[in-house]
Amino acid sequence: MTNETDQLAQRRSNMVEVGRLGRKLYPNSFSCSDTIAELVDRHAQQSGDALEVAKPNTTTAGRILSIRSFGKANFLVLSDGRVRIQVYVRKDGLSADDFALFKLLDFGDLIGIEGRLFRTRTDELTVWASRIEFLAKCLNPLPEKWHGLSDIEIRYRQRYLDLIVNPEARRVFEVRSRVLEGLRNFMNARQYLEVETPMMQRIAGGALARPFKTHHNALDLDLYLRIAPELYLKRLVVGGIERVYEINRNFRNEGISTQHNPEFTMLEFYQAFSDYRDLMGLTEQMLSEVAQHSTGSDKVSYGEHQISFSPPYARVALRDAVCEAASVRLGKTIQDGTLRVRESVVDLAQRLDVDVPAGATVGKIVLTLFEELCERTLIQPTFVYDYPTEISPLSKQRADDPETVERFELYAGGLEIANAFSELNDPAEQRRRFEAQRQDRQQGDLEAHAMDEDYLRALEYGLPPTAGEGLGIDRLVMLLTDSHSIRDVILFPLMRPRRE
User: Fold this and answer.
1) In what order do the strands lie in the sheet with 213-216?
2) Where is the Aminoacyl-transfer RNA synthetases class-II family profile domain (predicted)?
3) pLDDT higher than threshold 80 for residue 468
4) Which long-range contacts does 143-147 make (Cβ < 8 Å, 24+ apart)?
5) Where are the alpha helices (DSSP H) in 103-196?
6) Per-residue pLDDT band at 72 (split at 50, 70, 90)
7) Are strands 243-251 and 193-194 parallel, antiparallel or unpaired?
8) Would you list the domain boundaries of the chain?
9) Residue 207 has what pLDDT?
10) pLDDT tens-digit readout, 28-58
11) Half-sphere exposure of 338 (CA within 13 A, CB side)
């Protein structure tokens, strides 16, 4: 047999022996007086002498992450997933039955411990065990080390193992939880109403993306998993909810990368009687406060960079950013007008060795140039604003430039983390944009926006001047935890099935 097979057999044999001791193999409960984290927090600063005088007793529980024996002295290391503590086990300190149980324990088992706290000669806070309770057997050996691609795959596929042996993994998701809490606190303090909108929709709208399709049997109805809640939230603004938000799960049938997962989380919010510039200031304040709330500082390390979420953030127009980057690359000044004519912008892309999708519009080519030339260079938070109209079907045009909409995207650490705009509220113009998108779809663009007659009907009742924004929570957590793959910040990311 292989070593792993031997271990499996030995663990199952040990469990049988535990049962022969008269112990329940899977007891219904175990009452703790303290968690391991509480013990360490409360007594970490107490000296050995102080502990000897007080002799504090505790009953706690955790998973065994280490077993060591030195003659009569035996040591366990227990973890509650956040903090670890050492347990001292002596034969003469336990009942014969408990010591027999100790000899049957394996790395990874869950146990309860009763005993008193003291410090060893090496000054380590330790529980001197007087009782051991068996709580559950770890039948599969735990991984001892994490290295290489295969172990990264295991971390994502079996997140429970990652959380057992890697305390840093838990820290990431604790930060994520505080980010969500901080966002809600920020929105609620400004009288935004949190709502829930449909996740199954007749029309996949609110973004340019391919949806997942499903079918409702009872209604014999094809439905789509939402790609964004935008059109429903703006219906609510029409209905008089002037400040509204949703922390939402979205689903997009697209590729998987270090920045993309088909299922992801966003904060999306809308504010009546505002425009996109109002949201720039609000976003600066929000991210600064949320970073402070979730990490203790609005300055974080991301790779080799130190990123500051302290306002104000840099601001640059999209076409200006492309012109500047292209001018540096070519050693020749590129003017704004070059980016407004298809022939000239195609020629520019060719000179820059940037591939242009077949049939791409001027706006899509400009966006492709920006993504290739500029995106990775935007390390400190930067608002990139004023996008081509043809790639922004739900945004309001600038009064002085119909080819440009009042839209911004926020970048930090080379990642796009937010998208916002002044909302298009002219139903006639919105219909014209939807018609243009329908033509794009007929020509093969699977991400083009669908026609939504009910949304147009809602606009005809009157949408006030409104600004809206979507903030990518997964990418924000990546930045705040120095994580360089979106899979590191999603507990159970979608993975390609593995052949067993």
Assistant:
1) 200-201, 221-225, 213-216
2) 173-497
3) yes
4) none
5) 148-157, 159-165, 167-189
6) confident
7) parallel
8) 3-136, 165-313+380-488
9) 82
10) 999 999 999 999 999 999 999 999 999 999 9
11) 18
The answer to whether residue 449 scores a pLDDT higher than 90 is no
Query: Which residue shows structure tokens 């993306």?
Result: 209
> Residue 497 corresponds to which amino acid?
P
Task: Report the alpha-carbon distance of residue 437 to residue 434 in Å, rounded.
Answer: 5
Token reading at 246: 């949703």
**Other CB atoms within 10 Å distance of the CB of residue 262:** 16
**Helix runs in 190-268, H state only:** 230-238
- 449 Cβ neighbours under 8 A, 6+ residues apart: 205, 207, 208, 393, 394, 433, 434, 437
What's the one-letter identity of residue 238? V
Tell me the pTM: 0.91
Fold for 165-313+380-488, please state it: BirA Bifunctional Protein; domain 2 (3.30.930)
* Coil, helix or strand at residue 477: helix
Would you state the structure tokens that stand for residue 358, as one six-digit string? 């077949």
The tokens of 477 are what?
């957590």
Pick the CATH number of 3-136 from 2.40.50.140, 2.40.30.110, 1.10.569.10, 3.30.590.20: 2.40.50.140
Report the alpha-carbon distance of residue 34 to residue 15 in Å, rounded.
27
**What are the structure tokens assigned to 411, written together?**
């970048």
Structure tokens, 370: 């920006």
Amino acid identity of residue 493, one-letter, is: P
Task: Name the nearest CA neighbour of 160 among 179, 187, 140.
Answer: 140
pLDDT in tens, 279-316: 999 999 999 999 999 999 999 999 999 999 999 999 99
Token pair of 207, please?
């973004």
CA-to-CA separations, 493 to 58, 115, 264, 292, 490, in angstroms, rounded: 38, 41, 9, 27, 6
- pLDDT digits 0-9 by tens, 405-436: 999 999 999 999 999 999 999 999 999 988 88
Q: Are 466 and 271 in contact (CB under 8 A)?
A: yes
